[in-house]
Amino acid sequence: MLNSIIKKPGKLSAIALGSNIGDSYKILTAAIETLANTPGMKLEAQSSWYRTKAVGPPQPDYLNGCAIFRVQMSPDLLLETLLATEAKFGRVRQQRWGARSLDLDLLLYDDLIIDTPQLQIPHPRMVTRAFVLVPLVEIAPHWVEPTSGSMIKDIVKQVDCADVVLCQK
Known about the structure:
Layout: H1 2-5, E1 11-19, H2 24-36, E2 41-46, E3 50-52, E4 62-71, H3 75-88, E5 103-109, E6 114-115, E7 120-121, H4 130-139, E8 144-145, E9 150-151, H5 152-155, E10 165-166
Antiparallel strand pairs: 1-4, 1-5, 2-4, 3-4, 3-10, 6-7, 8-9
């Protein structure tokens, strides 16, 4: 009973993952493993993978998912860690919303709201993106998005999820 009262150390953070260049399944799986083995990060939950249409210029479909990590680092350091992980997997930023080997987005960090030029939490477009909400609702349906005060399971009902297809791999 005591264990249920004591809060685990760290903050919960939701991360969106996507890839549409190379062996996306292999890249995303390796990215999750890399992050889970990063000091100060512990994998708490991982969604299924979903095939989705790309946003932006013409390009291949994406493989998308989400993961929840318990982190013992600041949001800024977590963002740096995500960007370094993207680079490790060959991410080159050339075109906004262009194809990429790995895309990692910091969606939520506990119930924190941050709005700086470098970092916005919650992710400013997550509430309109089915490719983020569908995998996120699978692993965190009751997480309250702090700017709207709504649970993820309610937000996902407000977007068209027809193009988000569960992958069987």
